[in-house]
């Protein structure tokens, strides 16, 4: 499949976008897509997926496409933004046989999370180059709460996580996780300005909680015994495996998060200081700011 | 340089963005950037640059970064949109020594074209993977003309190109071209709704004029003797070399484009039919719809 043919097929497949998604004024097929942006500030992010790095060679095309889109949608969730539109790119090895299937899967997963794919680019890499996908995602900020940043944690706040943590890679969950967009909106709806800070757990609870602590100028103390763990996950896995794509939220002590089907568990507190520590059963506090899957 | 360190440096370098660019409400460093989008429809595009494909191994880092940003900005120009913000990604080989320089260059070239880089992602590829850069660019549609699409050409219109064509690769111009954002705005300002259609010439005049013809349901007839050529370029080069990143514009016959420093040359007409043909000195019409650098 030649690239122009592929891009044309994507454009044809997306011909209904301006009808189905009123925000899309011009869909794929021109030099740019054109979007109505009159419904408030836009949260934007881009993430990439590299073969041999974020997925193993031989992973089904549908799951590669799913993860590429889901990672960016998860970044929107971390802001409590609602998906608006996306752009994708792919570098494919010469003679790659599944280009059309991949393009269809990217578009389908985008739609499944309210993220119409309004454009993109496909290139053939040199021989031996890994598959590289990117997904740019734009979302509208929560109407009343606004974008939820990492920097809003305050001393005395309580720290929660959605779902359960650990063993995302060995269990295959890193390919099938559900980005928490609905949960994030429910949290922002219910908590409003008491939802002080949020992040999605991509690199590991220790590192990501450390990022919230650093951005907010505080320390986060996690309780080891409180961490919700997936089957087979120990403390190290829950703290450091990464790729959970659950939300960590920091909430005013005077408020309580709503009940969500995925579960919302209190895991710690915000105190004065720096970094992220874990308090173990023996009463020790162990630095956790480096516990995670540091991208190198 | 670890990726998180690199992303942090990019964020630090961009700390002034919300001050210098009022549209940037939250710059790099959080899960998403946040943009004010209240000034009208947004034109968005993404392009990628692959080592061994769009640039030779060993090309200076500054020129790689320049081309990655310039290609996307050129897509905004093709719509007569004005740059608003951008996102970049990079896949780098293991141990790549110039990551920080590359990030700085991407940010600097973005700013030089009014495209503040508000976020991005860096990943290390497996051994032997090519450098892959992407640039997502968003721009605001021209306030009075609106976005200029490929599909507006009408029978009887005149066809023009900016600048000169051909030999972009051998001359090195593909690394140093100036995206025509100022020219596009001037054209939209002066011509208004008489500016019927526009495209940037990335793949070659023949192919790209063919795209306008196809999108508009018309035929474009080019005059071989009229094509403005770069030094050393013959007709084949002007028609098919690609990577010129000049604008092709289609204008109502009752209007004339303004004079621009880069030159605006009438090269043909819009007639009934399909595709793009070139009329040679002998009076023959030769199909040109496939004359260009077809991406495979």
Describe this protein's structure.
The structure is a homodimer of 296-residue chains. With 296 residues, chain A is of the alpha+beta class. In chain A, 27% of the residues lie in helices and 27% in strands. The first copy, chain A, is built from 8 helices and 13 strands. In chain A, the strands form 3 sheets. Chain A has a 7-stranded mixed sheet. A 4-stranded mixed sheet of chain A has the order 3-6-4-5. In chain A, helix 4 links the parallel strand 4 and strand 5. In chain A, helix 1 runs parallel beside helix 4. The longest helix of chain A has 18 residues. The first copy, chain A, is globular. The mean pLDDT of chain A is 93. Chains A and B meet through strand 2, strand 3, helix 3, strand 4 and strand 5 of A and strand 2, strand 3, helix 3, strand 4 and strand 5 of B.
Largest contact between protein chains?
A: A-B, 68 and 68 residues
Mean pLDDT of chain A: 93
Helix content of chain A: 25-40%
What is the structural class of chain A? alpha+beta
- The string of secondary-structure elements of chain A, in order, is HHEEEHEHEEEHHEHEHEEEE
The total strand number of chain A stands at 13
Number of helical segments with 4 or more residues of chain A: 8
- Major sheet description of chain A: 7 strands, mixed
Coarse shape of chain A: globular
């Amino acid at each position: 499949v030649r690239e122009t043919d592929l891009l044309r097929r994507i454009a044809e497949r997306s011909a209904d976008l301006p009808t189905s998604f009123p925000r899309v004024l011009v869909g794929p097929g021109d030099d740019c897509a054109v979007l109505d942006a009159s419904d408030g500030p836009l949260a934007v992010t881009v993430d990439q997926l590299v073969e041999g790095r974020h997925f193993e060679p031989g992973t089904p095309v549908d799951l590669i496409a799913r993860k590429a889109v889901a990672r960016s949608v998860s970044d929107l969730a971390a802001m409590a933004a609602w998906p608006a539109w996306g752009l994708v790119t792919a570098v494919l090895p010469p003679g790659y046989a599944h280009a059309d299937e991949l393009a269809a899967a990217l578009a389908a997963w985008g739609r499944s999370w309210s993220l119409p794919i309004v454009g993109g680019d496909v290139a053939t890499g040199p021989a031996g180059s890994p598959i590289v996908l990117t997904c740019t995602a734009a979302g509208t900020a929560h109407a009343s709460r606004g974008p939820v940043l990492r920097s809003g944690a305050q001393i005395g706040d309580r720290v929660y996580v959605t779902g359960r943590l650990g063993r995302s890679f060995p269990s295959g969950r890193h390919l099938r996780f559900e980005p928490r967009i609905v949960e994030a909106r429910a949290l922002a709806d219910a908590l409003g300005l008491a939802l002080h800070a949020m992040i999605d757990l991509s690199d590991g609870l220790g590192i990501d909680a450390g990022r919230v602590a650093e951005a907010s100028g505080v320390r986060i103390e996690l309780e080891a015994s409180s961490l919700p763990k997936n089957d087979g996950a120990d403390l190290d896995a829950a703290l450091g495996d990464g790729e959970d794509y659950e939300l960590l939220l920091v909430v005013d002590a005077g408020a309580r998060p709503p009940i969500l089907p995925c579960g919302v568990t209190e895991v710690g507190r915000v105190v004065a200081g720096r970094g992220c520590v874990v308090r173990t059963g023996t009463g020790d506090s162990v630095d956790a700011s480096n516990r995670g899957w540091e991208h190198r």
